[in-house]
Amino acid sequence: MEQQKLPNATLIMVFGIISIITCCCYGVVGLIFGVVALVLANKAMKLHAENPDMYEGLQTVKTGRILAIIGIVLNVLYLLMSIWAISTFGWDALQDPEKMQEILQQYQ
Fold it and tell me: Which whole number is the average pLDDT over 71-77?
């Protein structure tokens, strides 16, 4: 019997990479990609666990899963930092460089 590739193995890897790359988009876009990749990876790993002789490509799924976890952590940290910056300085100050410089000079 010929082995089949695990479904969505390449997609899981791509989504894991995208979740890391897009962590600077206020943490929202990358978080979505990371969660989707993690869910797909868990489904693929369960499928492989049920019948390991039938499927190949588990290493790709594991790598994508690790990338997705790293992406989720980075995105959550960036999202928390963005929320902190907006609550501390305000959205208007973050949009205006001169106002931000005035606020930073007050802290010195």
Answer: 96
